[in-house]
Amino acid sequence: MQEIAGNPLFGVIISLIAFEIGKFIFEKTKLAIFNPLLIATLIVMGILNFFHISVKDYMLGGSLIVFFLAPATVVLAIPLYQKIDLLKKHWVPIIGGGIVGAVVAIVSVVVLGKFLGIDHKLLVSFMPKSITTPIGIELSKMLGGIPSITVFAIVVTGITGNVTAPFIYSVFKIKHPIAKGLGLGVSSHAVGTSRAIEMGEIEGAMSALAIVIAGILTIILAPLINAFV
């Protein structure tokens, strides 16, 4: 098994199979808790643990998937372009909401981290939790964090937003499509955007825009805040 695990294709193949299984389970149950990404993550973790395969071996192929995350994220600009007139009409609340969401995402991590007494290295690893993975990994390295912890935080944040968004919107009676899209994108990045796209074209476009806003602001603000914590 170790010889197979040493092949870069191993990480790619088990990731794709695990995700397809996750999609199948989600489509059959239609329950948000059975998010395909969550199911795929648990399956991959189970395989690595059962066969005693190191993460280093898995990442020989897993890194190929990470490599394609950046261009895949750029594709989200398509629904945004299709709704460019909407952006021009509501640009003040859209930009303002994106800025507030991005700032709160960082500050909340710092405040809770300090309150709980989290080690500084872990704290900076959690700072990029609400931005898309390619940017989050590089920012974590720049801040002196632990990229693997950052990826974990990003995945958990994304899945949480994806699963809980419909319930939260229902409880707080949030019905405007722009508000829904911005909320998901700025807090739950690409995973949240997948849920926003399911809700509608406007929600998907606004969520894609929120990813950009959150990413840019986090890159600017995180190093500044890190200098004072």
Radius of gyration: 18 Å
Q: Structural class from helices and strands?
A: mainly alpha
**What is the average per-residue confidence, as pLDDT, rounded to a whole number?**
87
Secondary structure: helix percent: over 70%
Q: What gap, in angstroms, lies between the N and C termini?
A: 45 Å
Identify the overall geometry: globular
Number of helical runs? Answer: 13
**How many extended strands?**
0
Biggest sheet overview: none
Low-pLDDT windows of residues: none
Residue share in β-strands:
under 5%
Give the topology string: H per helix, E per strand: HHHHHHHHHHHHH
Can you describe this structure?
The protein is an all-alpha fold and 229 residues long. It contains 13 helices and no strands. The protein has helices spanning 2-5, 8-29, 36-50, 55-67, 69-74, 77-82, 84-89, 91-116, 120-126, 133-143, 147-171, 177-199, 201-226. Helix 8 crosses helix 12 (177-199) and helix 12 (177-199) crosses helix 13 (201-226). The longest helix has 26 residues, at 91-116. The termini are far apart.
Q: Can you give keywords for this protein?
A:
globular, 229 residues
Task: Give the secondary structure arrangement, pairings included.
Layout: H1 2-5, H2 8-29, H3 36-50, H4 55-67, H5 69-74, H6 77-82, H7 84-89, H8 91-116, H9 120-126, H10 133-143, H11 147-171, H12 177-199, H13 201-226
At a glance:
The chain is mostly helical.
